[in-house]
Amino acid sequence: MRAIDLNADMGEYADEAQRAVEAALTPLISSCSIACGGHAGDEKTMRETARRAKAYGVSVGAHPSYPDREGFGRRSLTIAANELAASVRSQIAALKSILDAEGVTLAHIKPHGALYNDAARDIALARIVAQVACDAILVGPPQSMLERAAKELNAEFAAEGFVDRLYLKSGALAPRSQPGGVIEDIAARTHQALAIARGEPVAAADGELTLAVKTLCIHSDSPGAVETARAVRAGLEADGFAIRTFA
User: Is 26 helix (H, G, I), strand (E, B) or coil?
Assistant: First the structure.
């Protein structure tokens, strides 16, 4: 049977409504990446999210970012390499200490937002992230600098695709500000998820592309995230995919 992971970024909520979304989303996924202070998250949200993931058998990873809570980690920062490495290391350590106390394994590292996009293109940034990944699986775009950095270190890498974001044919994500940059229709999200999982061409803003991935991401802060997860999971399972973590 073919298998694929469904993941979501978690612990990012700022209100009770989004907290409820994350709670409803957790049973529908197989892995999650927990915000650990760089762009969102604190000890309370990390612990609550870790406990919920453990209860549902969901694999847990860290979701470090540029140190940019004001911009939610979605702005590229000019920061010294040693400062960035220290920040990412500190974020991962903060989550790991909580996971250790809760009896949860740190399975993967997935950078967030601008750091994810920048490190996918910039080998120097990718190496910083890979080198502080604590022997966990590194998650990023297929054929990216993050994948190259992982290979340099003989580290495990899990390529990721997005069900709710528009691609460019280069493999980069279209900007969120671009019309259609965030796919809003749940049927369209499900169609894209199935195409990526099957290894079929996916429509891009400027053509099409094919992605080989181990995991599919559903953004928990995208409207309709829970309904999307239900639809995507049902579609994948009907197509013969088992939903299980890559870890």
Answer: helix
